[in-house]
Design a protein that fits this description.
The radius of gyration is 13 Å and the shape is globular. It has one helix and six strands.
Length: about 90
């Protein structure tokens, strides 16, 4: 499986996340639905109301790991059968 990465965003932040997935959108989805990281996710309706990340009309974003900053690490592959977070090691002050 492909490996996708994203550097932690924000002032005085560092670190990154690696996710095994088929696409960067799938990698973000896996990250966004991992309960260990739900505090890094914002999910809202198109009108701006907070909603569960699994809601049909949810717009899911992350200030820490925004979708547009994800990229494939072409020299890595993961020998796993399911998409999954490999590691998240970030820090923000």
């Amino acid at each position: 499986m492909k490996v996708f990465a994203c550097k932690r965003q924000g002032s005085y932040s560092g670190g990154l996340i690696l996710v095994a997935a088929s696409t960067k959108e799938e990698a973000f989805y896996v990250f966004a639905h991992d309960k260990r990281f739900d505090w890094m996710i914002d999910s809202r309706t198109p009108e701006g109301s907070w909603v569960d990340v699994d809601a049909k009309n949810a717009i899911v974003t992350s200030d820490y790991y925004p979708l547009e900053k994800w990229h494939e690490v072409e020299c890595l592959t993961a020998q796993v059968s399911e998409p999954q977070v490999i590691i998240e090691d970030g820090h923000s002050e």
